């Protein structure tokens, strides 16, 4: 259902109460981040009526801003405490970046499309977050200059788990990403202990393809 009122703060509360909590998103810090970050500022103006509905929206360049529930689920599975250095692969609109800035100590986010990165940087500047470092580059290769990362979140689907991302995950770290071909994928959670990795499949998802050397 489209938004029929202009009180965006109230809409955010309704999103949390009606879409996130009932579906098992119960991490207090994650919910507080959703209540505080204005999702409508990260979507095109002609899409803002639907900013707080639970589905993805187009942001141009064949990219989307993800469904709030899926973003919340991914962030909850990372179990961030506020001390972590995080890598986000695929800045996109910058919405998830803003959420991460409230959940982690330092956020490195990398975007392949310069125009998207520029737009996201402008909106993110308005959030007054001081712990975000935005890079333009091939996210499938990670960002080795600031590795290792305590958590990595990948916002686009890859046919296989890129080795550079595994290499840049810190011991005890977690990475969440959609793995599979076009259409539907499996959301996977990877954990690193020393030089070994474990992973589990969580749920079926549908993400746009990850572009880059280890993407599509």
Explain the overall architecture:
There is one protein chain. With 216 residues, this protein is an alpha/beta fold. The chain has a single domain, classed as Vaccinia Virus protein VP39 (Rossmann fold, 3-Layer(aba) Sandwich), CATH 3.40.50. 26% of the residues lie in helices and 27% in strands. The chain is built from 6 helices and 9 strands. It has helices spanning 8-20, 28-36, 68-78, 95-101, 114-125, 163-167, and strands at residues 57-60, 63-65, 85-89, 106-111, 132-136, 149-154, 169-179, 185-193, 196-205. The strands form 2 sheets. The chain has a 7-stranded mixed sheet. It has a two-stranded antiparallel ribbon with strand order 1-2. A hairpin with a 5-residue loop joins strand 7 and strand 8 (185-193). Helix 1 packs antiparallel against helix 2 (28-36). The protein is globular, with a radius of gyration of 16 Å. The N and C termini lie far apart (33 Å). Mean pLDDT is 92; it is low at 1-5.
- Give me the CATH fold name: Rossmann fold
Lateral arrangement of strands in the main beta sheet: 5-4-3-6-7-8-9
Number of domains in the coordinates?
1
Q: How many runs of DSSP E, i.e. beta strands?
A: 9
Number of helices: 6
Shape: globular
Percent range for β-strand residues: 25-35%
Q: Helicity range of the residues?
A: 25-40%
What is the average per-residue confidence, as pLDDT, rounded to a whole number?
A: 92
> How many angstroms separate the termini?
33 Å
Structural class: alpha/beta
CATH class: Alpha Beta
Low-confidence stretches: 1-5
For the record, the CATH architecture stands as: 3-Layer(aba) Sandwich
Largest β-sheet summary: 7 strands, mixed
Based on CA atoms alone, the radius of gyration comes out at: 16 Å
Which H/E pattern describes the elements?
A: HHEEHEHEHEEHEEE
CATH superfamily: Vaccinia Virus protein VP39
């Amino acid at each position: 259902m489209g938004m029929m009122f202009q009180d965006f703060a109230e809409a955010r509360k309704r999103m949390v109460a009606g879409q996130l909590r009932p579906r098992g998103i119960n991490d207090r810090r994650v919910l507080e981040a959703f209540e505080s970050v204005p999702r409508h500022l990260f979507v095109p103006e002609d899409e803002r009526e639907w900013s707080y509905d639970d589905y993805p929206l187009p942001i141009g360049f064949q990219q989307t801003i993800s469904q709030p529930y899926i973003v919340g689920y991914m962030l909850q599975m990372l179990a961030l405490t506020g001390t972590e250095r995080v890598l986000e692969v695929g800045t996109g609109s910058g919405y998830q970046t803003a959420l991460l800035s409230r959940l982690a100590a330092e956020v490195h986010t990398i975007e392949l499309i310069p125009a998207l990165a520029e737009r996201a940087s402008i909106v993110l500047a308005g959030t007054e977050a001081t712990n975000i470092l935005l890079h333009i580059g091939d996210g499938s290769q990670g960002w080795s200059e600031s590795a290792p990362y305590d958590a990595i979140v990948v916002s686009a689907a890859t046919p296989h788990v890129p080795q550079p991302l595994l290499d840049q995950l810190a011991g005890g770290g977690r990475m969440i990403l959609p793995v599979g071909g076009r259409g539907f994928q499996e959301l996977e959670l990877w954990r690193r202990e020393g030089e070994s990795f474990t992973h589990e499949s969580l749920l079926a998802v549908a993400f746009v393809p990850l572009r880059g050397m280890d993407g599509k």
